[in-house]
């Protein structure tokens, strides 16, 4: 609920620089304060200047609802729906308090349903006609031109139409294999050197360990690690001295 100072600010704004938004805000604040008569006067004045402004019409509808003025409520909602038929708040109020305003005419319902049925009938006819146009030559042409997905769909239709034709089934399977081979490997397969991680793990599970020969000592003889600095062995030396003291 707006405070007195906020209400005064809205009043000054509406009087000093009238606008449809300020009218709706001021009238709504008055209504929330319980000053319904003044709110009705302000919103009526605003709608006289700015007819069809939906927020102001919604305020008028709420005021009419609060004062139980059925005629004013229906009039405000009808005007709001004419200004914006799809406004969600208007439709919500109308469905709750004046459902006749948003109810679809039965004749209109019949026209809509008839149109949808016609569309479905046309679509089904087009699908049937397109299915009859699929031939082996068309499927082979798709495959030669590299349109593998179109070829796959064509061969699938042909196989469904002629399930006993083994040649078509083999071509359908070959196209599916070509599509699978043309797809990029997933990330885990690329990281494993072109082998899927699942396959790599399967190979690893059946692999036998290989006994490798020990590396030659030539490198060890050539490379001699530098001596560790005193700081690196200070703790170990202190530990040895502590052990020596214990033995005494």
Task: Describe the protein's architecture and organization.
This protein is mostly helical. Among the domains are: about 5-100, Tetratricopeptide repeat domain (Serine Threonine Protein Phosphatase 5, Tetratricopeptide repeat); about 135-180, no CATH class. It contains 14 helices and no strands. The chain has helices at about 5-15, 20-30, 35-50, 55-65, 70-85, 90-95, 105-135, 135-145, 150-160, 165-180, 185-190, 195-205, 220, 230-245. Residues about 105-130 have low confidence and may be disordered.
Listing every helix as H and every strand as E from the N terminus to the C terminus, the arrangement reads HHHHHHHHHHHHHH
Mean pLDDT: 75
Tally of individual helices: 14
Highest-level CATH class of the domain at 4-101: Mainly Alpha
CATH domain topology of the domain at 4-101: Serine Threonine Protein Phosphatase 5, Tetratricopeptide repeat
Q: What is the end-to-end distance?
A: 89 Å
Number of strands: 0
Quick rundown:
By secondary structure, this protein is mainly alpha-helical.
Throw out a few tags for this protein:
flat, Serine Threonine Protein Phosphatase 5, Tetratricopeptide repeat, mainly alpha, 248 residues, 74% helix, 14 helices
Question: SSE layout and pairings?
Answer:
Layout: H1 4-16, H2 20-32, H3 36-49, H4 54-66, H5 70-83, H6 88-97, H7 106-133, H8 136-144, H9 148-161, H10 166-182, H11 187-191, H12 197-206, H13 218-222, H14 230-247
Helix pairs in contact: 1-2, 2-3, 2-4, 3-4, 4-5, 5-6, 8-9, 9-10
